[in-house]
Structure formats: structure tokens, C-alpha cells
Design goal:
Shape: globular
Number of strands: 26
Strand content: 25-35%
Structural class: alpha+beta
Number of domains: 3
CATH topology of the largest domain: outer membrane lipoprotein receptor (LolB), chain A
Length: 682
């Protein structure tokens, strides 16, 4: 099949870089913040109600939150998410369609989860919307039909993420840091989700959707004395109950800093995170210094990590640092996706910057800017009902002083450089840190081994392994030609393959920057013509064409003719099946056997591109290409899967291009010897 990756990469690289480089607005002078105190009462079942009257706008919001302790799900991990997905499908009193129809009629917003419910509407409809929210929360209608539907969607999502390097890096990282049996370390698998039944969902709801630790925060254009009896009527029948008290061991940090490596042969860059657990409460005296320290390390474009890894070295689009806080053990995490070639160097710089904030006082200018940014964001948030509800809830659940948020600006302003340094030394445990890395072992392990940091190896489920073998010996008699010939045979045989004159592929994909799915169109003619296009609806985002006159790309309305080596490469890619020509090419060799998505594949280098063919099936499963952009070399990988037969020839209906993120293209239609005309290549 033809190659389509290089110009698609340029398109998205440009978009991503533009998004990253937008200047951040500077906050103005902070006004005096006056957060209204809620009026409160408690129902006999334990539900705590907080009401904040605000008559500036004719709107009201309701936030029902269950402040349950985290709980492990064990062999039925996924049951809580399934419960969340099934809530909101109407109630035992009203069907899903009628429920949603009425909400739409009022122009309201109502959402549910296994631990919460939320509603907002115009105050004219405040009572009815609250009634609908209460009905959906307290009388959910769990049906087998909806259960089967949502479970199937979740299973499909899990399977789709099995090749995602960021997803696997995150889940293995949490599993190692917290432990697989800890609520923060558990992850849903096909196996655990398959164990979940409708009865499990119903039991989960009955056990945990209880009023013992429940809070209802009401904010907006309502009168306390009028809404109070409505709440008492709607929630007074909520049966009193306590959530199960399950115990688990708190996680401990490692004794020595170590690298925890997950080999992902399909990775085009490495996911790096430095993680240690912490126990930071919002009520702690060093809460604000710790938050400021974390932001200085990796909170924005001007942070230590970004100025080093992105601005100075150009290894990443961005690095970040986050710190958790609350009643339970959380984590401090510094992370970035970096170019594979720079993995070991990036680890060194991560450590360098963390040590810097521990040993050197932050400059007055940077500290002032960070504090101003914090204050500006707080002032913006405090205008939103959701934020006010969260603040009111935090004061209760986190046992904060009643004036915590009134003094927020004062407390931020008071943070000193000395306090930042002390907090960094307390929470940034550089000598007891897991350096979790998911990347292509064959490319990055030689450099990591030179760092003299202990390396432990894990699979994508967090199970410890021996050091992965990058390449295996090729059996005697197997050559590049035999592999290529076997591929032709595997997809239908030489006669069927040579009869293919044109291929038209239509599919769709999504990207983080786009508001809706993209349409993918790929057409090729055996006469050396190619057209690839990505579009949103009728609007073309990128189009590249190869014809008898040359080649060009149109991106964001701008046309550019392709010349030189790029033109030669594009012309070479304009073929139905390149293996027909490659099997006759001399000098091709097999560089080894590598693991591609967990299966052995023969690797055949061809210039800047390496082609991978599954040892067992003979099908082409991937290709990788070294490209240069802005003076930096990087590897792009394209995976091929879901082969289906079309007119006697097998073609991939799933193409995944890893270009810093995964461009997962699923074909809806593939046509052979039809659906292509000369007009497609003008």
C-alpha cells in the first residue's frame, strides 16, 4: 500500500505548534473577592444541603456530590464507570426519550455519574429541573439493553487503546506507583470488564449511591425558604445508608530512584514521567508553596521544564508537572513526550530541573509572575457557579477554614521563595522517584543504560519482565525477496494483485484539535497517480496530489509544489502495491525480527523507510520512516490492521499513523478498480 504520512505530519505539526505558541494573557489587578457563605441544613438521612443565593442572573445550578472514599473494584474493575454511563437513561418513572426531551424543552443541562449529579437551568424551571435530577439520581433505570450497549462501547474503547503509548504509559505508571490493588492503581481490562454483569452495576449503585457522605450545593436565583421544602420533599425519601468501608494498603515510594521501562515497539516518541506519591492536604500550611513550586517546575510555557526540554533543546511540544492534594494519598508527576533519540538526555534534564528547584531559590520575577497568574485564574474561576459550588464543597469535605477562599489571594501573595524551596524538598522526592518510560526499546534502551540508573522492565499490564530482546535472528533461507513474495501471496497472489489498477479508500478519524471527525480519502492509480485528502465536512484541511506533471500539497488554502527528493519519494509512493516493485529490487535485506504490537515481524529497510511483515501471516503490519522537521529527526510509524478481502485482494481497513499522537483511520469503504478517475488527480 502507498505511503501517506509525511505531509499529514506537517499539517498537524503546524497546527500543534501554533496552539502551543499562543501568548498567555496577563492577569490584571486582582479585585477583592467576596464569596457568599451558604445557608445550610441537613436531612434526616444525612444529606447535607448548602444554598447560595445569587440573583444577578435568572439561572440556578444544582451539584450533588457523594464524598465517598476511593474503593477498589477488583475483578470487576470497570463496574463503576459502567454505572456512570448507565445513569441518566431516564428513571423508573420516565423513559429515557421523554426524560431527555423535557430537559431539551427547558434548555437545561443535566448530567449524572456513579458519584454525582448536576443540573443547570433558568430559574423559572428550577423546581422541575431539580425534580428531574432527583428522579434520575435516586431512581435510575438500569436495563439489560442499555447495559449491553454501553459495555460493548467500553470494550471497543479498551481494545482501541491497546496500542496507545500514552494510555499504556499512564496506566502502568499508576499501577506501579500505587499498586494494582489500590483504587488509584487499578485499571480496566477486557477481562475485568467482561466479568461485569447488570447485577454488579445495580449492587454498585445500591452500595455507594447513599446519602451518608452526600452534599447538595444549590447556587443561583432561588430563595432559601422556597427551595428548602422542595429539596426536603424530593430527597427526604432517599433511604439512609452507609457506603462499604474497604481497606487497602497505602502505597510507598521506592527506596532508590529507578527507571520502569515498558517496551512499545510502535512508539515514535517516548512517554516519560517522574512520579512519587505524596500526602498533601489543602489544609496543610505548605499547600500554597507546594502548588506554586509545582507550577514553577512545569505549569506553563515559561516553567523550568518547558524552557529546558522545549525551548532550549526542542525535544518536545511541551512538558508539565502536576501535584495532587486532598484527604487521600496522591502523586507528584513531571511528564513529557519526547523524541525517541533524546530519551536518555531528557531524563537527565528532568532530574536537573527538579534538583534545581530543590537547591536554588526561584527568582523574584518568576515567582511574582507565577503568583499573578494564580491569582488571575482564581478571580476568573470565582465568577462561575461551578467553581463556587466546588469551593463550598471543599470547605466541608477538606475541613478547611470557613474563610479559606476569601483569604486565597492573600495566601498566594504571601508565598516566599524560601517556602517554595522548602516545599520542593519535602514533596519532590528525586531520590525516591519512579522514572516511568514507555518507548521503543531497540532505539532508547542503549542510551538509558548509560545513565547508570537501575532499569526494571514491565509489560503493558504492569507485570515485571526480563529485559526485552530487540531483534531476533532470521531463520536460514528467509530473505527480503521471500518475505515480499510471501506478502503478495498472503494478500491474494500475484495474479490478483497485478490486476489491481486503482484503489479508492474512504474513512474517518478524529484529532484533539478538531470539533468533529475528519474524512479521509486516499486514491491511487497504478499509472503513478495519487491523491490523499483530509477534510472536515466540505472543508478540505489538507490535500496532496501526485500526477504525471509532478506533485503538490494544499494546506489551509495554500498550494505548494513538491520538488527534489520529496518529489521522488512521493512519486515512488504512488503505486497500488509497492511490493510488486520491491520484490524485483536488488540489495534489500532483512535487518532482523522485531516485535510489532506484540507479534514478530521481519524488518526490511528501504532507504529512510523500514517495512515490517508479520512472521506468521505474511501481511504488512507497519512501516516506519525517519523524517526531518525544523532540524530535528524523528520517526513516524504507520500501523496496518483489520485486513479484509475486496475483489480477491486483502487490504487494511485500519491505518494508524503515530505523529506525536495517534491518527486512527478506520475505513468505511474500499473500492478496487472503481471509484477513481483522472479528475481525482488534477
Amino acid at each position: 500500500m502507498k505511503k501517506t504520512s509525511i505531509l499529514i505530519f506537517i499539517l498537524f505539526l503546524t497546527a500543534m505548534m501554533q496552539a502551543q505558541d499562543r501568548p498567555q494573557p496577563k492577569p490584571g489587578k486582582a479585585p477583592v473577592v467576596n464569596i457568599k457563605k451558604p445557608q445550610t441544613f441537613v436531612l434526616a438521612n444525612g444529606l447535607k444541603v448548602m444554598i447560595v443565593e445569587d440573583h444577578k442572573l435568572p439561572r440556578v445550578t444544582y451539584n450533588l456530590t457523594l464524598d465517598n472514599a476511593p474503593f477498589p473494584e477488583g475483578k470487576i474493575k470497570g463496574v463503576d464507570e459502567l454505572t456512570s454511563r448507565l445513569m441518566g437513561n431516564g428513571s423508573k418513572k420516565i423513559t429515557k426519550d421523554l426524560f431527555n426531551e423535557e430537559i431539551d424543552f427547558f434548555g437545561a443541562n443535566v448530567n449524572f455519574s456513579s458519584q454525582a449529579a448536576y443540573a443547570s437551568s433558568f430559574s423559572n424551571y428550577a423546581n422541575r429541573i431539580l425534580e428531574l435530577m432527583a428522579d434520575g439520581a435516586l431512581n435510575p433505570n438500569f436495563t439489560q439493553v442499555e447495559f449491553d450497549k454501553e459495555k460493548a462501547k467500553m470494550l471497543e474503547g479498551i481494545k482501541a487503546q491497546e496500542k496507545s503509548v500514552p494510555t499504556i504509559a499512564n496506566r502502568v505508571g499508576d499501577a506501579l506507583v500505587f499498586g494494582k490493588t489500590h483504587p488509584s492503581g487499578e485499571f480496566t481490562t477486557v477481562e475485568t470488564l467482561s466479568n461485569v454483569t447488570l447485577t454488579n452495576v445495580q449492587t454498585n449503585y445500591q452500595n455507594y449511591f447513599v446519602p451518608e457522605n452526600a452534599y447538595l450545593v444549590v447556587i443561583g436565583d432561588v430563595k432559601y425558604n422556597k427551595i428548602k421544602p422542595v429539596i426536603e420533599k424530593l430527597f427526604g425519601s432517599w433511604q439512609k445508608g452507609s457506603a462499604p468501608k474497604l481497606s487497602y494498603t497505602d502505597p510507598k515510594n521506592v527506596d532508590i530512584t529507578q527507571i520502569n521501562f515498558i517496551d512499545m515497539p510502535n512508539a515514535v516518541q517516548s512517554e516519560i514521567s517522574l512520579v512519587n506519591t505524596i500526602n498533601l492536604k489543602m489544609s496543610d500550611p505548605d499547600f500554597f508553596p507546594a502548588a506554586i513550586a509545582t507550577y514553577i517546575l512545569g505549569g506553563d510555557i515559561n516553567s523550568y521544564l518547558n524552557m529546558n526540554l522545549r525551548e532550549k533543546h526542542g525535544w518536545t511540544y511541551g512538558a508539565n508537572a502536576t501535584i495532587g492534594s486532598g484527604k487521600y494519598v496522591s502523586k507528584l508527576k513531571s511528564a513529557s513526550a519526547v523524541r525517541s533519540i533524546a530519551t536518555d538526555s531528557a531524563v537527565v534534564e528532568f532530574i536537573k530541573e527538579i534538583k534545581k528547584i530543590r537547591t536554588e531559590k526561584v527568582s523574584d520575577e518568576l515567582l511574582a509572575n507565577v503568583k499573578a497568574g494564580y491569582i488571575g485564574r482564581f478571580v476568573m474561576q470565582v465568577q462561575k457557579p461551578q467553581a463556587v459550588a466546588r469551593y463550598a464543597l471543599n470547605i466541608e469535605t477538606e475541613k478547611l477554614p470557613a474563610d479559606f477562599y476569601e483569604n486565597y489571594i492573600k495566601n498566594i501573595t504571601a508565598v516566599t521563595a524560601e517556602q517554595v524551596q522548602l516545599a520542593a524538598n519535602k514533596y519532590f522526592l528525586i531520590d525516591n522517584t519512579r522514572i516511568v518510560i514507555a518507548g521503543k526499546g531497540s532505539e532508547v534502551l542503549p542510551g538509558l543504560e548509560k545513565l547508570k540508573i537501575p532499569i526494571f522492565y514491565f509489560d503493558k499490564y504492569g507485570n515485571q519482565l526480563e529485559k526485552p530482546v530487540a531483534k531476533k535472528e532470521v531463520p536460514a533461507g528467509v530473505t527480503a525477496k521471500t518475505v515480499l513474495d510471501n506478502y503478495i501471496k498472503a494478500i491474494g497472489g500475484e495474479k490478483a494483485v497485478t490486476s489491481v489498477k486503482t484503489i479508492a479508500m474512504i474513512g474517518s478519524t478524529t484529532i484533539p484539535q478538531a470539533p468533529s471527525p475528519l474524512t479521509f480519502t486516499n486514491k491511487v492509480d497504478s499509472k503513478g497517480k495519487l491523491m490523499v485528502e483530509l477534510a472536515i465536512g466540505p472543508m478540505s484541511l489538507m490535500k496532496q496530489v501526485v500526477n504525471e506533471k509532478g506533485a503538490y500539497v494544499i494546506q489551509q488554502g495554500q498550494r505548494k509544489n513538491i520538488e527534489g527528493t520529496d518529489l521522488a519519494e512521493m512519486k515512488a509512493s504512488a503505486t497500488t502495491f509497492e511490493e510488486l516493485q520491491l520484490s524485483k529490487k536488488t540489495g534489500l535485506t532483512i535487518s532482523g525480527i522485531e516485535s510489532i504490537n506484540g507479534n514478530d515481524a521481519y524488518a526490511i529497510p528501504n532507504g529512510k523507510t523500514t517495512l515490517y511483515y508479520d512472521v506468521k501471516s505474511g501481511l504488512k503490519v507497519a512501516e516506519s520512516k525517519t523524517v526531518e522537521q525544523g532540524g530535528n529527526k524523528m520517526t513516524q510509524t504507520t500501523n496496518f490492521g483489520d485486513y479484509r478481502e475486496v475483489k480477491g485482494v486483502k487490504v487494511p481497513f485500519n491505518i494508524i499513523q503515530n505523529i506525536g499522537f495517534e491518527l486512527d483511520i478506520k475505513m468505511s469503504e474500499v473500492k478496487i478498480n472503481e471509484g477513481v478517475s483522472d479528475a481525482d488527480f488534477l
